[in-house]
Write a structure and sequence with these properties.
The structure is a single chain. The chain is built from four helices and 14 strands. By secondary structure, the chain is α+β, with helices and mostly antiparallel strands. Strands 1, 2, 3, 7, 13 and 14 form a six-stranded antiparallel beta sheet that branches. Strands 4-6-8-10-9 form a five-stranded mixed beta barrel. Strand 9 and strand 10 form a beta hairpin. It comes from Ornithinimicrobium kibberense. InterPro entries: Tad_N. Keywords: Membrane, Transmembrane, Transmembrane helix.
Length: 322
């Protein structure tokens, strides 16, 4: 009798083990399924976020200067190519315009891999992007230099977005711009007094200290300029000046959006004095300084400057807010 009882107990315990193992495997597979489907949803959200960013930038660039329009068709045109495999499910949930910003909410479906076995429906994955725009009114100039209004128009007056311009320093006078160079210091440029390292803080409508001399500020070295190659920055433009030499001051009127492609500053101490390839194409003979700049105009995107109302369509900043 005891033998039968022991045998029955072993069979009972064995059955319980099988049930426990089965339950454990179901739970384990459930976690694996959730992990795989969760990773797929996360990846899809990254794609949808990229699409929402592109859509918001597209709407901002199209309508920033004329008044924002909640153009879902334009937004969808830019969102869909950024969401692979499920383009036919990509949609624009809403486009919301405000004073100087636009929000785009996009979404796409992610079909589950494991959870579809239990009848789960495709998961709708949303993402939101907000882009703002305005004219830059103050910020830190990564190259402590400002050019005169005349120099700006001589160099960039006929430039289109993406054109490369060789900005000589000093910029030769060209009366076709209609500017009177007699109203500005010789050369039409000024190095600014650095406010930190080799950078200078500037603000529109205010005076900043500088130096009418040719020498690069002593705080600057080629190591400060090399990391700036292929980087977008805003070049200050002044419309008035007062004082001479180290006592000079310059009235900042606005900024030009440019990408630095190369530079040559012959007054830098030590070598090299240039960066980029080539170092200012068409460099004139004799000692000089120059920057090879790609004009970006109103399409400039910069995170360092404070934005105000749109005052100059040529230097409109469009940037991602969140």
């Amino acid at each position: 009798m005891q033998r039968l009882r022991r045998e029955f107990r072993r069979q009972l315990e064995g059955g319980a083990t099988i049930v426990t193992f089965a339950l454990f495997m179901m739970i384990l597979l459930g976690f694996i399924g959730l992990g795989i489907d969760g990773a797929a949803v996360y990846a899809k959200r990254q794609h949808v976020q990229t699409g929402a960013d592109a859509a918001a930038f597209a709407v901002a660039q199209e309508y920033a200067l004329t008044g924002c329009v909640e153009d879902e068709g334009l937004a969808l045109t830019y969102a869909k190519p950024n969401v692979p495999n499920e383009n036919d499910t990509t949609g624009i949930d809403k486009v919301v315009c405000e004073a100087n910003s636009v929000q785009v909410v996009a979404s796409a479906e992610q079909p589950p891999f494991f959870l579809q076995a239990v009848g789960a429906d495709p998961i709708r994955v949303p993402a939101s992007a907000t882009v703002e725009w305005g004219s830059p009114i103050e910020g830190t100039s990564v190259i402590p230099i400002a050019i005169s209004y005349c120099s700006y128009w001589d160099a960039f007056g006929d430039a289109n977005i993406g054109d490369t311009v060789n900005l000589n320093i000093p910029q030769p006078s060209d009366l076709t711009s209609g500017c009177d160079y007699g109203d500005y210091p010789a050369g039409g440029f000024s190095w600014l007094d650095p406010t930190g390292g080799c950078e200078a803080f500037t603000s529109v409508g205010n005076w900043v200290p500088g130096d009418t001399g040719n020498n690069v500020p002593s705080e600057c070295s080629v190591a400060d300029f090399l990391p700036l190659i292929d980087r977008l920055f805003l070049l200050p433009v002044f419309d008035d000046n007062r004082g001479v030499g180290s006592g000079g001051e310059y009235h900042i009127a606005g900024y030009a959006g440019v990408i630095l492609r190369s530079f040559h500053f012959n007054t830098l101490s030590g070598n090299p004095k240039s960066g980029g390839t080539p170092a200012c194409a068409g460099l004139p003979t004799g000692p000089t300084m120059c920057m090879l700049l790609e004009f970006q105009g109103y399409q400039s995107i910069d995170e360092e400057f404070i934005l105000g109302p749109v005052t100059d369509p040529n230097t409109l900043v469009i940037r991602l807010k969140d």
